[in-house]
Design a protein that fits this description.
- With about 130 residues, the chain is α+β, with helices and mostly antiparallel strands.
- It has a single domain, classed as 2-Layer Sandwich (Glycoprotein, Type 4 Pilin), CATH 3.30.700.
- The protein has two helices and four strands.
- Strands 1-2-3-4 form a four-stranded antiparallel β-sheet.
- β1 and β2 form a beta hairpin.
- It is rod-shaped, with a radius of gyration of 26 Å.
- The N and C termini lie far apart (about 80 Å).
Length: about 130
């Protein structure tokens, strides 16, 4: 008489649970990296607009002999408050401009707290901080 041999025809519940847990961990890591990449891309908006402010400031300086410091200069071309089409609000001071990340209003922020990107003029050169170089 031949012995009865049982063949394994599928996965056990434990094996399936382990695979699901591993996939969940990989997905969460991927999602976190994806959100970091999205936020990095959103800061490109601020860098571009700060660059435009720098160019406008240089044009203003060539015409008037000094940099603009009044808020009306920036209100004409750049958003000063969070809007539905911008992720940052912008402000202007003598020789510097800054972009503050919106945490409410405008588009969905996806950041827990605001941060600032600064562009400033000192000793004949422009310099940046917190993402603008």
């Amino acid at each position: 008489m031949r012995p009865i041999v049982h063949q394994k025809n599928g996965f056990t519940l434990l094996e399936l649970i382990v695979v699901i847990i591993i996939l969940g961990i990989l997905a969460s890591i991927g999602f976190i990296q994806f959100m970091k990449t999205i936020e990095k891309a959103r800061t490109a908006e601020a860098r571009n607009i700060l660059g435009a402010i720098r160019s406008a400031q240089e044009s203003y300086r060539l015409e008037h002999g000094s940099y603009a410091s009044e808020s009306s200069f920036i209100e004409v071309n750049f958003p000063v408050a969070c809007t539905a089409s911008h992720f940052f609000s912008y402000s202007l001071a003598a020789g510097s401009a800054s972009a503050v990340r919106c945490t409410s209003g405008g588009k969905h922020p996806d950041v827990p707290s605001a941060y600032t990107i600064t562009l400033s003029y000192s000793d004949g050169a422009w310099s940046g901080a917190a993402g603008y170089y």
